[in-house]
UniProtKB/TrEMBL annotation:
Function field: Catalyzes the hydrolysis of glutamine to glutamate and ammonia as part of the biosynthesis of pyridoxal 5'-phosphate. The resulting ammonia molecule is channeled to the active site of PdxS.
UniProt cross-references to PROSITE patterns, sorted A to Z: GATASE_TYPE_1 (PS51273), PDXT_SNO_1 (PS01236), PDXT_SNO_2 (PS51130)
Record key words, sorted: Glutamine amidotransferase, Hydrolase, Lyase, Pyridoxal phosphate
Molecular function terms, GO-annotated: glutaminase activity; pyridoxal 5'-phosphate synthase (glutamine hydrolysing) activity
Catalytic activity: aldehydo-D-ribose 5-phosphate + D-glyceraldehyde 3-phosphate + L-glutamine = pyridoxal 5'-phosphate + L-glutamate + phosphate + 3 H2O + H(+); L-glutamine + H2O = L-glutamate + NH4(+)
EC number: 4.3.3.6, 3.5.1.2
Subunit architecture: In the presence of PdxS, forms a dodecamer of heterodimers. Only shows activity in the heterodimer.
Active site: 79, 173, 175
Protein name per its UniProtKB record: Pyridoxal 5'-phosphate synthase subunit PdxT
Superkingdom of the source species: Bacteria
InterPro entries linked: Class_I_gatase-like, PdxT/SNO, PdxT/SNO_CS
Organism: Spongiactinospora rosea
Length: 197
């Protein structure tokens, strides 16, 4: 059983823990570097990326996170978590840092202030339509060569799901809809990654 952490600095941690357990993982909250050492993969939840960045510095876990990602730890970031996994961001606050790992530019609050949140069907990784919930969501502005686009909005054709090797990111929140397919996809990625090592 893969041991998967959920970064528990801020955001909807509990929902990801239960979605991961539904998908067959041993899921644990991760707040401190010592807890990060205990997991083989990590989910970075939705929430607020500026707060998450500041708390990551306070808890002295930002550098350990960068190191684990560099070493190839599988990770999945949803919404604010997608921002945290982006190598470059637009619309961040002054000095805002990310963990990085995915060669992409992510635009914060991209769908516009007037549309705080909305739901839309998107095609995910060739697995059919998925009901996606967007909450002050980012979109992916551009991606590098090694990034695979897994999902786009039907309206507007915006990139909202990507993968680069062991790293997965979505603009939306599958942990809020009770549709387990994205978490199942990630747990399968982690299983394969473990077998290949
Ligand atoms: N707008 C938030 C941010 O910049 C992300 C919103 C979310 O995670 N639901 O971090």
């Amino acid at each position: 059983v893969p041991v998967i952490g959920v970064l528990a600095l801020q955001g909807d941690v509990r929902e990801h823990l239960s979605a991961l357990r539904e998908a067959g993982a041993d899921a644990r909250a991760v707040r401190r570097p010592a807890e990060l050492d205990e997991v083989g993969a990590l989910v970075i939840p939705g929430g607020e990326s500026t707060t998450m960045w500041k708390l990551a510095e306070t808890f002295e876990i930002l550098e350990p996170l960068r190191l684990r990602i560099k070493e190839g730890m599988p990770a999945y970031g949803s919404c604010a978590g997608m921002i945290m996994l982006a190598d470059r961001i637009e619309g961040g606050v002054t000095g805002q840092q990310t963990i990085g790992g995915i060669d992409m530019v992510v635009r914060r609050n991209a769908f516009g202030r007037q549309v705080d949140s909305f739901e839309s069907d998107i095609e995910f990784a060739g697995r059919g339509d998925l009901r996606a919930v967007f909450i002050r969501a980012p979109w992916v502005e551009s991606v590098g060569d090694r990034v695979e686009v897994l999902g786009r909005t039907h309206a507007g054709d915006r990139i909202v799901a990507v993968r680069q090797g062991p790293l997965l990111a979505t603009s939306f929140h599958p942990e809020l809809t009770g549709d387990g397919r994205v978490h199942a996809y990630f747990v399968e990625m982690v299983r394969r990654d473990t077998r290949e090592r």
